[in-house]
Amino acid sequence: MSVYLLFGTVCLFAQDSIVWQTRTERLSDTEYMLRITADIPEGQRLYNGEEIYGITFTYNNPGNKLVFIGSTKQPKAVSAYDPLVKREIACYTGRTDFKQLVIAEELPKDLIVTGKVNYSYRAGNTLATGDDMLEFGLSRENGEETESLPGDRASGAPGETGGPELWRIFVLSFLGGFAALLTPCVFPMIPLTVSFFTKRAKSRGEGLRDGILFGISIMAIYVLLGTAVTAVFGAGALNALSTNVWFNLFFFLLLVVFAFSFLGAFELVLPHSWVVKVDSRAHQRGITGILFMALALAIVSFSCTGPIVGTLLVDAATRGGIAPVVGMLGFSLALALPFALFATFPGWLRAMPKSGGWLNTVKVTLGFLELAFAFKFLSNADLVLQLHWLERETFLAIWIVIFGVMALYLLGKIRLPLDREAGHISVSRLALGLCSAAFAVYMLPGLWGAPLQLISGFPPPLQYSESPYGVGYSKAGILPETPGKVLPDGAEPGPHDIPAFTDYDKGLAYAKKVNKPVLLDFTGYACVNCRKMEERVWAAPGILDILKNEVVLVSLYVDDKRPLPEAERVVSEITGKELKYRGQKWSEFQQLHYKANAQPLYVLIDHEENKLNASTAYNPDIEQYRAWLREGIENFKRTNKQDED
């Protein structure tokens, strides 16, 4: 057999045999149509029957850069009786075209894709078989690079947290470190520590060096703490904490303790012997003394920094990967920066505000915020167990009270044990009090069904409430905005009343019945980013209509703790343990089929369970998400049309 290759066009032929030609048609930035033509000599017949008389196409996938949409489309064949096979069989004559749609996820400038076609044919009175190689050239137009859609990505793949998420953790932790600076345990230490370094130094340069080393030592201590948390739990397992009931309950109790400590009920302190032992080493000269002085600061200020560090570590740990390390890096950078700056410019110390009652106000305000944050973890446990004890209205009522009381405190109407007498409040305290009061008022309409997009992802979703459609309205399988429209069998009202299946097989069967593609929504009851997508992106004009009318939504909750029926319990292919809960079943399904275990993950598939385009994850860009939906739906329509042809 001879092979002639042009880029994008390949001809393969053998004497007295069928000639296979291939070419590649570029449909869009990411879509390619592989076209295969069989030139059948006169007097020959290409069979398209069953078993050994069928035509099969196979393709390689170099670097897993491609997604093959469905099977290769074969035109309708003409059936007739054939004396060689002694039965009626479908066959082709003349020139026959076959097509295969491909999505290029990460296409380099040029890519060669090989394949194989197996077939049976009749040459005169001889029955023969063929096994020919196919070759295709995929190239970007004019050699230019074009954007490619990501593959199976998620907001943190197994043991991995995405770049934007790490930046968010870093920024929040930096702000947490700045807040820790403004507490009574840390703020007064800045001038004392800097003065100590400048006085004991023999020169200004030595004082500057010691101050900078002190700041670096603070960062090293907290980063080491974040590294220890990652090492103890394991980078790949940390993000599982966000859906673990017992961990969420533990975090709730822990943050409540931190909150009451900040409010003045008691003080969290480390053993006094630790302070004495570390302080004795801090007076040594050199790097060792500076390191122990930084450690002494961490221990002495624990009553103020401990709750903040604990909260940041809790949040970072539930994100997984190296998030705790990144969180502690941000926190310690904010904490260490003033010591290094004031050591460099000692004159700035005169411009620092004086210590006073305002420091306790900062501490108490942080206590209220800790208390509000604690109820998010209690809500996670309730959502995962589906107990409906802390539904949306109850959660919002608690937050309204917390921020309302915080506003009264900041406005001077409530006093706590550690507050000093003051005849007036500062302008900044007044402004913060008004903001807290406004936030409490903003949440009030949420008790009657307002979406509250500013805090989307924190309260339970709209459908997880006593009155999902407003006070006095009860849902019973009928969608309120389309009176009389009954939900499909097996579906339930999802976000924004989108009919949603929570069983994969039922959803797929319904999609075949109504001839629509399936949108797989790998989600979780305790998934904050899932709620943000549902409340901000899915509700957008042009997307909500697509989700309600053009796809079949199948929402698979990977943290569903309801037990599986005995007949559905199988041994996990990943862990080797029995799958006992529904969430375990869907989590394993996601990992085995789509190589990801973080949520949300969205996958569009056809009725043969083939991906219609690259899957996507958390993406708050409405236009990009709409384009992604449209791409998958158009691919579905195209493959359907090819089937009909």
Can you tell me about this structure?
The chain has 16 helices and 17 strands. The chain has 645 residues and is α+β, with helices and mostly antiparallel strands. A hairpin with a 5-residue loop joins strand 2 and strand 3 (19-26). The two termini are 32 Å apart. Mean pLDDT is 76; it is low at 1-15, 142-162, 234-239 and 472-484.
Helix content: 40-55%
Oligomer: single chain
What's the rounded overall pLDDT mean? 76
Number of E-state strands: 17
Our measurement of the CA-to-CA distance between the termini, rounded to an integer number of angstroms, reads 32 Å
Low-confidence stretches: 1-15, 142-162, 234-239, 472-484
State the shape.
elongated
| Spatial order of strands in the largest sheet | 1-2-3-4-10-7
Radius of gyration: 32 Å
User: Strand portion, in percent?
Assistant: 15-25%
Biggest sheet character: 6 strands, antiparallel
Counting helices, strands and paired strands, the structural category is alpha+beta
Q: Helical element count?
A: 16
Task: Give the key terms.
elongated, alpha+beta, 17 strands, 18% strand, disordered N terminus, six-stranded antiparallel beta sheet, 645 residues
What's the SSE blueprint?
Blueprint: E1 2-6, E2 9-13, E3 19-26, E4 31-39, E5 44-47, E6 56-59, E7 66-73, E8 78-82, E9 87-92, E10 95-104, E11 110-123, E12 126-139, H1 163-181, H2 189-200, H3 204-233, H4 245-263, H5 272-282, H6 287-300, H7 302-317, H8 323-344, H9 357-385, H10 392-410, H11 427-443, E13 491-493, E14 499-501, H12 504-514, E15 518-523, H13 528-537, H14 544-549, E16 552-557, H15 582-594, E17 601-605, H16 622-644
Parallel strand pairs: 14-16, 15-16
Antiparallel strand pairs: 1-2, 2-3, 3-4, 4-10, 5-9, 5-11, 6-11, 7-10, 8-9, 11-12, 13-14, 15-17
Helix pairs in contact: 1-7, 1-8, 2-3, 2-8, 3-6, 3-8, 4-7, 4-9, 5-6, 7-8, 9-10, 10-11
